[in-house]
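Incident log, support desk, overnight shift.

02:14 A customer reports that sequence design results differ from what the structure should imply. Their input is reproduced verbatim below. On-call engineer (initials T.W.) acknowledged and began investigating.
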């Protein structure tokens, strides 16, 4: 089902422009690939490891089995694939697909748009008024079971084929269809109401007359929309009330990254004195056509009324996509894409109706039953000698044996699924859980692969879509280490250090060349470390103000920012661990109070404001793995180069030491994110020389990036190592025990995230997704077939290690070695895929389903997880405060990650076990009466005459046996506490042993035995009148079914006992009523009800003997089996 994109409909304001995701559909250039690799599959056998690793031309070839497509393939399911392909082709031919093109959007003038763009509305309904009935009927009758009953029911309109009353065939079928249509109609109405609610959300639109409120569905390309802190839009930013035209946004609902990202506005619109002037200028935005890629955008902003014209290039830094959040301030943006052309919608796959594995297995069994029914009918006609109109007799026998496939199977299963959903939502141990798809609860008990988004695991409060909660845990200075319990010592050292500085400053000249050297005591080292952490970052303090959007200039907001009170200050940054570091420095006394593009200010414990000028800043990149900043202190004029980064990058930069590598390893084993902090003092001459070389490198036309990097690296030599920091992600409650529970249950967990490789690795360690004893193999970046081949062979040598791979490398591997990569990855205990686009997440799910044929489950909490959730066999969404995209798109919605354990171990187990028992028992109920019919016909000259007629057949599958049989949905083999204590029991469920051809054949044998005993026993024991045969056999049949239900129950419930006695009471009470309702003299339900006969001792002992003979052996076999070969769960129960 489709998710309601809470804010997808809202394309907003500003001259910032948005675009979207990683495209899997682009053409790959193979020019850089060696031609001789085209015919060389990846080596998959051990013999190739003897060869030189670099000589991949000599590696042996893997023989991948090719699918044979012949007559057997066609008959065994190939026809479905062919029909589906033909239907898809016809649909594509009939549906006109609009070609996406680049566009020119005029500011505030939607009427100038040359083309008609899609409406900005959400529509998640599967049907409309005209397609509802045909669509629902198609979804039902595409299953063999329902189609079979439709054909049988229609055959009763032919007089020559009529067996009984029409209502005995059409009433059950009509009831099933009515229940299904009502359920689908309710779901459709709910989807419509959710869509209407989303499309009716009000947003502020800027017009010539001022600000007006418009519905999200009425927003058009070219509108100027005001995006405030609570809003989510998809536009470029023209003007907003954040200093110097920049703001922070959050994209966790789009790409899963919880870091805040800095966005900048178009420069020329920042100079306008009032908002109304946006309509007085003649400007437009030229934007590229809608794409999947959410990480790039190309466009231009042009103002034509200037002299000369103003041209400004636009990039991803100028855009806000749908499903992103403005973290602070107010933005004005021009709408570029709407509706189906937004990145979030383009990255969402079309929803498909999910069918459970148990339903597919039962569908196969019904086909086997139909085949047996046809064979039995042919045998009956053959024994007749094919005399007379034998073809008509054949069809009559097929209709006569139609109860071998009971229509009540679908009714019972659907009602059972509804009961399971109700039990899940009423479970007090998992409050807030919602079952949105009631057709697949059994899938929760068959899962092998669990694919989760990182943010679904690390939220501080289960499912709330806020920024990561990071906690500063450790500061290591080389000789001394401080933890959370010794932070007060650091605070006292900082207070002492700045108290000394205040005393020294008046004595010192304002422009002293250098401070007097002091001995490197612990106090001074702590002071230097805390000062470096407080200065080396990209964090900006934000003070919430209530500035309006009615044309005020930005000076008002700027003045408000000078109120440095602690109460209304929040921090914004592109990385949550940087915020954690700055918050920690605040807690120990050194507070960041203000920052702009050229300076930052710190407040000491004594309240003094220290100003530092930012000379240069080198942002963090995934390639450099470090960030640096050059600052000049206002009071002394000292220039200092601070740098922090990952230990692998900083180890070669800092001066020699003997503790860094060891301590980094210790912190990593604790699941902490480590950062190495270093500094280097620069003289005025050194900095001037560096600045000249740096500016010259930035102006280079060729190899600019390499030249700039080389100049910066010239400073990164022999830096003084100050400290090592350790920061921990705040996980949800009980995440670690939940993941361990799932691992013990045999479920393989894959984490798919859009975050950086280092972050994903740290989360995998801290959450114990990867145990401490396991190695982690980081799949290095590959760009062509040769590199992928070598890296896969290197990974092939590793055993029992977790895999960490980036989205780009994954794309290359899947392009050339899809089968081999999936085979290797599935052997890993855990897999982490970082920098994954939403499309890639869905593709990974499809690959696992295709290559392993196991059931998959996807868990997410953001709009970027919707495609993955819809692609998986079972989708679980974690509901949060900021958005419900994943929750609404999922089959099951939970509030905390830890609830997954009980949802799978308890409810998944019970749903699967109960449905398997219920389905097989309903089939047994049909097979036993069909066996009796076959015995009856064979004895009476193979006549195609029904044994039981009229209300008898309807009553047999309804009021006489329905309640006890359906009470099996209350049965449980293991108590919930045991299922959670011993998750290893879950492994047996994935093997599908509760419902298989083996168990099915056992039930077939039981049905044949009991049906034969009941019928032959009645024939042997009846005396003078034939109607006594029907009386004895039917009564024994009802008693046998009630006893068989009791035989299969493992844990009794008071409702089960009530159902047994209620059904027995209904049968006894109906004898007198049916004796009057039906006349005497026909072989019908009323004919055998001779009250004089059924009250005699002869009737009672004959029924008792037949019932005991049919059931007692099965009770004995069950006792012996439980005594000598008990199932695993019975040992725990005892």
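02:41 Re-run completed on a clean worker. Output:
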């Amino acid at each position: 089902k489709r998710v309601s994109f809470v804010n997808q409909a809202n394309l907003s304001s500003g001259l910032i422009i948005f675009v979207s995701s990683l495209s899997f559909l682009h053409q790959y250039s193979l020019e850089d690939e060696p031609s001789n690799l085209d015919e060389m599959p990846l080596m998959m056998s051990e013999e190739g490891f003897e060869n030189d690793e670099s000589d991949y031309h000599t590696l042996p070839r893997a023989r991948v089995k090719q699918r044979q497509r012949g007559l057997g393939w066609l008959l065994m399911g190939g026809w479905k694939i062919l029909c589906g392909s033909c239907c898809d082709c016809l649909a594509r031919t009939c549906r006109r697909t609009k070609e996406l093109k680049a566009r020119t959007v005029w500011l505030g003038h939607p009427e100038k748009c040359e083309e008609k763009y899609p409406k900005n509305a959400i529509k998640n309904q599967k049907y409309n008024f005209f397609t509802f009935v045909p669509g629902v009927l198609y979804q039902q009758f595409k299953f063999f079971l329902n189609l079979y009953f439709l054909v049988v029911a229609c055959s009763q309109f032919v007089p020559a084929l009529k067996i009984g009353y029409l209502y005995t065939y059409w009433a059950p079928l009509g009831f099933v269809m009515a229940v299904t249509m009502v359920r689908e109609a309710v779901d459709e109405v709910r989807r419509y109401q959710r869509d209407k609610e989303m499309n009716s959300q009000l947003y502020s639109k800027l017009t010539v007359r001022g600000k007006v409120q418009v519905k999200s569905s009425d927003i058009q390309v070219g509108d100027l929309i005001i995006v405030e802190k609570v809003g989510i839009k998809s536009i470029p930013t023209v003007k907003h009330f954040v200093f110097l035209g920049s703001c922070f946004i959050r994209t966790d609902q789009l790409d899963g990254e919880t870091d805040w990202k800095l966005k900048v506005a178009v420069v020329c619109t920042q100079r306008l004195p009032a908002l109304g002037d946006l309509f007085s200028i003649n400007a437009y935005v030229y934007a590229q056509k809608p794409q999947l890629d959410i990480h790039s955008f190309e466009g231009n902003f042009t103002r034509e009324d200037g002299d000369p014209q103003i041209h400004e290039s636009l990039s991803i830094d100028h855009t806000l996509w749908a499903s992103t959040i403005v973290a602070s301030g107010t933005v004005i943006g021009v709408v570029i894409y709407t509706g189906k052309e937004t990145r979030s919608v383009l990255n969402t796959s079309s929803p498909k109706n999910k069918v459970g594995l148990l339903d597919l297995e039962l569908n196969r069994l019904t086909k086997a039953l139909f085949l047996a029914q046809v064979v039995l009918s042919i045998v009956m006609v053959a024994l007749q000698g094919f005399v007379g109109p034998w073809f008509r007799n054949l069809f009559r026998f097929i209709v006569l044996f139609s109860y071998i496939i009971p229509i009540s199977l679908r009714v019972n299963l659907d009602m059972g699924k509804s009961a399971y959903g109700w039990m899940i939502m009423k479970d007090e141990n998992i409050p807030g859980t919602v079952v949105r798809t009631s057709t697949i609860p059994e899938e929760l008990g068959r899962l092998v692969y669990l694919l989760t988004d990182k943010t679904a695991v690390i939220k501080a409060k289960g499912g709330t879509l806020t920024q990561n909660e990071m906690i500063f845990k450790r500061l290591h200075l080389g000789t001394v280490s401080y933890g959370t319990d010794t932070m007060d010592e650091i605070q006292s050292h900082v207070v002492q250090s700045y108290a000394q500085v205040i005393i020294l400053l008046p004595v010192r000249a304002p422009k002293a060349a250098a401070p007097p050297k002091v001995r490197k005591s612990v106090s001074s080292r702590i002071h230097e470390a805390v000062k470096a952490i407080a200065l080396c970052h990209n964090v900006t303090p934000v003070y919430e103000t209530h500035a309006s959007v009615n044309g005020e200039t930005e000076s008002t907001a700027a003045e408000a920012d000078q109120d440095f009170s602690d109460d209304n200050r929040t921090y914004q940054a592109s990385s949550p661990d940087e915020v954690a570091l700055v918050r920690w420095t605040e807690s120990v006394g050194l507070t960041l109070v203000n920052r702009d593009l050229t300076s930052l200010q710190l407040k000491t414990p004594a309240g003094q404001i220290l100003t530092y000028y930012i000379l240069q800043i080198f942002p963090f990149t995934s390639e450099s793995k470090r960030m640096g900043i050059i600052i000049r202190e206002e009071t002394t004029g000292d220039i200092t180069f601070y740098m922090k980064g990952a230990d692998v990058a900083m180890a070669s930069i800092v001066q020699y030491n003997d503790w860094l590598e060891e301590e980094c390893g210790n912190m990593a084993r604790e699941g902490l994110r480590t950062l190495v902090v270093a500094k280097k003092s620069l003289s005025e001459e050194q900095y001037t020389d560096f600045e000249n070389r740096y500016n010259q490198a930035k102006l280079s036309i060729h190899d600019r990036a390499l030249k700039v990097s080389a100049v910066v690296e010239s400073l990164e030599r022999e830096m003084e190592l100050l400290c090592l920091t350790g920061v921990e992600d705040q996980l949800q409650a009980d995440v670690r025990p939940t993941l361990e529970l799932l691992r013990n249950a045999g479920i393989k967990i894959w984490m798919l995230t859009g975050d950086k490789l280092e972050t994903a690795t740290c989360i995998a360690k801290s959450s114990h997704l990867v145990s401490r004893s396991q190695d982690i193999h980081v799949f290095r970046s590959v760009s062509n077939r040769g590199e992928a081949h070598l890296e896969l062979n290197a990974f092939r040598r590793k055993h029992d290690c977790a895999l960490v791979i980036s989205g780009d490398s994954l794309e290359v591997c899947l392009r050339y070695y899809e089968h081999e990569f999936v085979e290797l990855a599935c052997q890993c205990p855990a897999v982490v895929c970082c920098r994954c686009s939403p499309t890639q997440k869905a593709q990974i799910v499809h690959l696992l389903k295709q290559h392993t044929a196991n059931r998959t489950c996807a868990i997410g909490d953001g709009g970027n997880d919707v495609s993955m959730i819809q692609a998986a066999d079972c989708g679980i969404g974690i509901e949060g405060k900021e958005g419900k995209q994943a929750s609404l798109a999922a089959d099951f919605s939970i509030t905390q990650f830890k609830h997954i354990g009980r949802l799978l171990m308890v409810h998944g187990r019970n749903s699967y076990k109960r449905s398997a028992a219920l389905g097989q028992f309903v089939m047994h109920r049909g097979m036993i009466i069909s066996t009796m019919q076959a015995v009856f016909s064979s004895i009476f000259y193979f006549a195609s005459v029904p044994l039981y007629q009229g209300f008898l057949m309807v009553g047999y599958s309804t009021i006489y046996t329905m309640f006890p049989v359906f009470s099996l949905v209350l049965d449980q083999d293991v108590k919930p506490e045991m299922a959670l204590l011993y998750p290893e029991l879950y492994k047996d469920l994935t093997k599908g042993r509760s419902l298989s051809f083996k168990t099915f054949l056992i039930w077939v044998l039981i049905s044949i035995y009991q049906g034969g005993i009941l019928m032959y026993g009645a024939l042997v024991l009846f005396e003078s009148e034939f109607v006594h045969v029907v009386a004895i056999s039917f009564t024994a049949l009802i008693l046998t079914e009630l006893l068989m239900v009791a035989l299969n129950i493992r844990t009794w419930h008071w409702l089960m006992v009530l159902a047994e006695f209620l059904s027995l009471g209904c049968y006894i009470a109906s004898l007198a009523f049916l004796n009057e309702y039906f006349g005497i003299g026909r072989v019908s339900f009323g004919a055998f009800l001779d009250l004089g006969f059924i009250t005699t001792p002869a009737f009672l002992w004959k029924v008792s003997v037949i019932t005991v003979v049919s059931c007692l052996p099965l009770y004995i076999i069950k006792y012996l089996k439980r005594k000598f070969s008990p199932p695993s769960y019975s040992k725990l129960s005892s």
